Amino acid sequence: MEEIKIFGHRNPDTDTIMSSLVLEDLENKAGFNKVKAYRLGKISKETEYALNYFKVEAPELLEEVQPGQKVMLVDHNEFSQSVSGIEKAKILRVVDHHKIAEFQTSEPLFYLSMPVGCTSTILYDMYKTNNIEISEKIAGLMLSAILSDTLLLKSPTCTPKDIEVANDLEKIAGVNLNEYGLNMLKAGTDLSEFTPNELINIDSKPYTTNGIKYQAAQVNTVSIEDVLKDKEEIEKAMKDFMDSNNVDSFLLMITDIIENNSQLIVLGKPEIAEKAFNIKLKDNMAFLPGVVSRKKQIVPQIESVL
Amino acid sequence: MEEIKIFGHRNPDTDTIMSSLVLEDLENKAGFNKVKAYRLGKISKETEYALNYFKVEAPELLEEVQPGQKVMLVDHNEFSQSVSGIEKAKILRVVDHHKIAEFQTSEPLFYLSMPVGCTSTILYDMYKTNNIEISEKIAGLMLSAILSDTLLLKSPTCTPKDIEVANDLEKIAGVNLNEYGLNMLKAGTDLSEFTPNELINIDSKPYTTNGIKYQAAQVNTVSIEDVLKDKEEIEKAMKDFMDSNNVDSFLLMITDIIENNSQLIVLGKPEIAEKAFNIKLKDNMAFLPGVVSRKKQIVPQIESVL
């Protein structure tokens, strides 16, 4: 039987990696399909911490898919965020929690999207619907995904459903949600080993609306000041990225996960960001109090201007 | 509280009308949202038969929606098949069983699609998931939708899941599935009152792929020969439609619901249909044995050529 490949978005974050592994487990246990989880890029330190904690191996790297390859997407749907060759793949399933854009198929498929904080919250529902037991390890992976995407259940993307699911998973996984989650997030804020170019690609997503190509990246930290020490080099890396990818505007969120604020650096078309957030950029920067979610607090505001 | 509008596609068929009414019932019973079902066009004779049988009123006509209007879509997702103004509406839910195309949102939403024969089959699952009882009337509407979309469970779009659900709904609705279904389908084949222009719009859908605009319409009959008596007038109506809507190719399926075959009439770019179905058109026509499903046996084949 032909192998079906499961993967999340490029520049994988913890939800994307965990949800790939979790859907692999679910499909195998339910006996639905012969599937294998993959990743489209480097594992982050945060994800690595969680995988090590629950003693689960990272999925293999996938560079591209061949025409006709059967695939399942988690945690994304926009082709520009997906694997090379996705346009000619046969998409069997999508499980996601993002807006839908730049997505199309030539045949009907299983598509489940919910406006919740994390893909793993939806996968939890699929275990329940199909009466499949959630193991300790899988609970740990799902909990890590939720705590990562919702910044310890404090992000505005977090819904009552995410909290309910996280509380149940906390018991199955046998960890203390707050303690474990903070350690995991902190592991992800160690940016010392990253070059500026790597830093802007840790969690970076491309968008295209009305012909405007923009990139929205995010890094988590416990000290915005520390990250800004390399501001000049970071801006150079952003500029280089824009030049080689024909990007009109690049927004980098430097998010303080303790205080729940973000410093925004914007290069290219500053008037869009200034209008979207009602700010005045100074040295390409603005401080956005209470802003931690790209999905809820950055992208829709940019879209509404575009 | 602001009213949320539920509707299916233009040129409504039985599944589209019933699924709008069924989701209205589900939302109201679950207490999720204050919703109201609408229709985007004239009720067919088949749908009218089913509504009369189960003593349910047809939904009101909806011409357009205002910017920001909250809506839920059933049985479609492509904006070209939806209500005027859909681009600026706020889409809260989609429940559908078609391929996804020309669809986008600026925010996350609830989207549930499954590769099954009928939207009502998916709605049945939502009743079960939310532990909501299905009344006799609602069961009758859902059963009508399934029997219509799957031509009495015989279309290639029909899945084991549709059959399982239909068998359960048959009991709740208290009808004989085959007898009731055949009477309903036959009611829909009375084309005597339709002008040729109305006939090609009974169940007609627009598609756009790689810049090619094509229209795929279907009429059900118990005698293909009878319908072909008006071939000249029908072709004139198709030609007029193409001219006023800038359509490149128009495919009309005349489907024999007893024998499960279709006669295809093609105007414009005949080479596409000839390649897609490996046929040679004669007098703009070809007989397609065993072909009854636009979704499975017409659209994907056209798409693969385009």
Structure description:
2 copies of one chain form a homodimer. By secondary structure, chain A is an alpha/beta fold. Chain A has 2 domains: 183 residues, inorganic pyrophosphatase (n-terminal core) (Alpha-Beta Complex), CATH 3.90.1640.10; 110 residues, Diaminopimelate Epimerase, Chain A, domain 1. In chain A, 39% of the residues lie in helices and 20% in strands. In chain A, the strands form 2 sheets. Chain A has a 6-stranded parallel β-sheet with strand order 3-2-1-4-5-6. In chain A, strands 7-8-9-10-11 form a 5-stranded mixed β-sheet. In chain A, helix 2 packs across helix 6. The mean pLDDT of chain A is 95. At the A-B interface, strand 6 and helix 12 of A face strand 6 and helix 12 of B. Strand 6 of chain A pairs antiparallel with strand 6 of chain B.
Topology of helices and strands:
The structure is a homodimer of 306-residue chains.
Chain A: E1 4-7, H1 14-30, E2 35-39, H2 45-53, E3 60-61, E4 70-74, E5 90-96, E6 110-113, H3 119-129, H4 136-149, H5 160-173, H6 177-188, H7 196-199, E7 204-209, E8 212-221, H8 224-228, H9 231-245, E9 249-256, E10 261-267, H10 270-277, E11 285-288, H11 294-297, H12 299-305
Parallel strand pairs in A: 1-2, 1-4, 2-3, 4-5, 5-6, 8-9
Antiparallel strand pairs in A: 7-8, 9-10, 10-11
